[in-house]
Amino acid sequence: MTTVAIIPARGGSKRIPGKNLRLFNGVPMMAWSIRAAQRAGCFDRIVVSTDDPALAELALAEGAEVPFQRPAALADDHTGTLPVIAHALRELPDAMLACCLYATAPLVQPRYLNEGLRLLQAHPEKSYAFSVCSFSFPVQRALVLNEEGALEALYPQHRYTRSQDLPAAFQDAGQFYWGRRDAWLRGDTLFSPCSLPVRLPRYLVQDIDTEEDWRRAEFMYQALKAAGEVEP
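Above: the chain sequence. Below: its structure as tokens.
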């Protein structure tokens, strides 16, 4: 059964211009994902889906494939992950299990990519397995601002519930999503009972959408590397 890593990487980025090419701790951002996929050893192919010639050149230099160009209609600010992966799979008829690996996931670790594949193979009734981490504080005790700028409980029924009595909640870690070919093509919902969790420690998770996020992620990587917690 052919397994493929699909790395979606478009050229435009408004909040952090050139994000996928920019150096993160001395290495182009997208290269971190390609190298992690290579080290994982669980992929028959590593494919980059891009509309940008510079990103295609980087992908090829790093040993990934660019067998097609992503159409402009799938490379704007409003295009979601599902149609991009579905398009790639229609171009890759041999791919039965596909892992969408984000290009901005420099903390992704090969062992968790392998864990996602293992989970999906062990549960043929499920469509996806993807990276999650727990919230550091119970979401049921969240606060919001009302129209007057004062605080209110988002879930008033849990205003006095002890934290230890509330079930753990998880968030999408935004690193990778393993899925079956037919599930991607059907557009099965990711956040649903058809998905399995690959649980990551919170110290390996950081979205990179702003300059502050970028700086925090670099500090995290440097600390994790010094502690021997990540592969260089």
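The chain has a mean pLDDT of 95.
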